[in-house]
Amino acid sequence: MNLFRNVVFIAAIAGLVAGVVLACMQAYATVPLILKAEVYEQAGGGHHHDHTAPAPTDNNAMNSAAPAGNAMSSAAPAAAEAVPAEEEGWAPADGFERFAFSVLANIVTGIGFALVLVAVSEFAGGIGNWRQGVFWGLAGFAVFTLAPGLDLPPELPAMPAAELLPRQIWWTATVAATAIGLALIAFRKSLPLAILGVVLIVAPHIVGAPQPDSFETPIPEGLHHQFVVAVTVTNLVFWLVLGAVVGVVRGRFTGSATSLRDSFA
């Protein structure tokens, strides 16, 4: 029970810090692009695709789910559906209220990812300092953002997409295969296992992610490109901050202890 408490404590602090950082970056980098896309969506007659189910967040799996996890822009405000006003559900008002809910969603997402990061890293001896945390953060970025995003890039409102369930299945399988592959390469000093790791990392992209029947969209290609870059960069910073804070907090409270089980009074 003491170990569980320590893991949750470290994850809560790291997730809080990283979540706030992510929300601030989104407000500057991704939300303006989403608002621009909403203009095209409305001008194009309200064409939209299924964004209604949350990703196993993460962006994008614990941002809790699947394709949204690959963007972690799932924590950013969702575009309004083109339905009659009387059928629309409640949504936060633009401005501070929308930003506040985005911050809350990102903090919850950050804590979830931090729990995974801390728990997994403990099996490898734990994250001892911020430098090690940065490397673990890069691994998290590769697993949850980079690998799924190669075939399922972040999408703006009014962009077509395949059915949600197949995308979620592919996203989850890609995350799992990439994580196992990286672990085999990093922690098993064996050429056959390293080769197996590479195969696991590449396999989901050979299979390919589910694609929509049509790629027709009113969204300009340049706007989508900006969004993909913005989401990727903000997620990279998020994971670097998350890993570094985990390393700092764990190092501060564990001292020379090699396991969380032996730390904290």
Beta-strand fraction estimate: under 5%
Q: Biggest sheet, open or closed, and with what strands and sense?
A: none
* Tally of DSSP β-strands: 0
Overall SS class: mainly alpha
Number of alpha- plus pi-helical segments: 8
Question: How many discrete structural domains?
Answer: 1
Oligomer state equals single chain
Textual characterization of the structure:
It is a single chain. The protein is mostly helical and 265 residues long. The chain has one domain. Helices cover 64% and strands 0% of the residues. It has helices spanning 2-29, 31-43, 67-71, 96-122, 130-151, 164-187, 191-207, 221-254. Helix 1 packs across helix 4 and helix 1 packs antiparallel against helix 8. The longest helix has 34 residues, at 221-254. The protein is flat and about 55 Å long. The two termini are 13 Å apart. The model is unreliable at 46-71 and 73-86 (pLDDT under 50).
Describe this structure in a few short sentences.
With 265 residues, this protein is mainly alpha-helical.
Please describe the topology of this protein.
Elements: H1 2-29, H2 31-43, H3 67-71, H4 96-122, H5 130-151, H6 164-187, H7 191-207, H8 221-254
Helix pairs in contact: 1-4, 1-8, 2-8, 4-8, 5-6, 5-8, 6-7
Characteristic terms for this protein:
single chain; 265 residues; mainly alpha; flat
